Amino acid sequence: MENKQENEELNIPDVLPLLPVRDVVVYPYMILPLFVGREISINAVDSALSKDRLIFLATQKDVSEEDPSPDMIYGVGTVAMIMRMLKLPDGRVKILVQGLTKGRITEYMEQKPFYSVRIERIVEPLLPENTLETEASCVPSRSSWRRLFHWVRWYLPKSW
Fold first, then answer.
1. Per-residue pLDDT tens for 77-93?
2. CATH of region 2-121, choose from 2.70.150.10, 2.30.130.40, 1.10.1040.50, 3.30.950.30
């Protein structure tokens, strides 16, 4: 129930700047620093900071590609909030982002001066709460696992 309320409070625009990331997949609730060096990516960060601080992070398919085209970027990514930004002396930017929710790119709106994408949110199904019946059905398997671990302990070498 609490997760549903959090999602309703999150007001995410349909169109966001896109930051293609390399060697990392960002998930909702993750907090991580990213170093941004490409001009198109720095423009996307600047655009996000000038508005609502929201940016769409999607992983590149080929990490060696300096200028990825839309078909070289995965279509599913994460809407993230830029929490902090630091301009480095070498021209790069270091940002601290927090993933908010999953999304899917439905359309590339602009490609210059940065990628701007239309997204749709991916809503995760809520897990049902455990009922008395569910708990009762788990009892036999828990009992079997306990017996198995008890016997395995006797047969393992002492060095384990």
1. 999 999 999 999 999 99
2. 2.30.130.40
